[in-house]
Amino acid sequence: MSTYAVIAEYNPFHNGHLYQLSQLKKDSSDRVVVIMSGNFVQRGEPAILDKWKRAGIALENGADMVISLPVGFSVSTAATFAYGAVKILNGTGIIDRLSFGTEEKDIDKLISISRFLLNEPPLFRSVLRDNLSSGLSYAKARDLAVREVLGEESGDILSLPNNILATEYIKSLLAMNSSIVPENIVRNNAHDGSDINGGIASGLEIRRMMYTSRDISSFVPFSQALLDTDTLPDPERFFSILMYRLRIEDPRALEDVPEAGEGIGRRFHEAAKTATTLEDLYEMVKSKRFSLSRIRRIACQYVLGITKEYLNLLLERPFIHVLGIRKESSPLLATLSERSVFPVYTNLKDVLEDELIKKEAEASDIYSSVLKKPSPSKRDLTEKFISL
Q: Which site from 145, 162, 212, 301 is most exposed, i.e. has the minimal number of CB atoms within 10 Å?
């Protein structure tokens, strides 16, 4: 019997995710613990469905337990997203294996590249530093440095999104000297949503379909009844909150978010004077050094009040918020509570005085406010623990 972990966003849960869980549960005695982004995701935007709906769908389709990844990790860089999730999983004391999707078949190649990136030999650091000093974004500077030092094959492997996350997971496991074993499942469909094949479509393409009221039943294992368009996030509501803050606050306030850099506050504030849509704002702010994905995360971190101080505190003392469990897997929760080195919660209402927990509740309230039809506040206090 093994307990697998999956780090996911399920934005939304689709047939590709269902396939992964089915592969992990070929042995009926195996269990799968999912640690899932909450109401905001790494793209720097609200999740397409709230965390309770997504947790319920995951449990209905093979997950045995769903843990909510704290919001500070959910909206961070791939490296911090991965490190935070792995740190929590490593601290549970119940995980044997970590499963993730990759474009690369050979796990040994991914482990070798991950070890190289973790150790950063002097030549690599030198080339990377030179690339950064030329004004390139970190992602581009690292890509060129890897190709120069390790070769084009490694560069090609690291150019693909699932491989990038995989190496971050493996790096984190190596850095922690974790006993958790990494395992990959090869992913074949395009990440950008351009490929729809055999009932498998990317999350991006499914979200596009949801926003245009197209039928997604061929690509997801959950009921269309969950997809009332009033429950979807409205980008313009998020834009309004962002613009309000940009227009009344000092530009320096924005530079306290984790991914900000010198001058980014002024760029955002200048753009806010004339931008008329969220995408317009992002296009005006982005630059050679600040990629569009980084700009999105900076904006999201700013709206949510994610500061460098908060993120450092979260890295120092993460916590485990269990959203739900399958009834037949309930012994997992008892074992988790016994073995975890971090505090375990199934309800947050009794620990709201903790500033880290308070940030989770605030994020959920902001999420409720940006839906097309805003939902009630304080849901982290009122939503019931899911038991299926």
A: 212
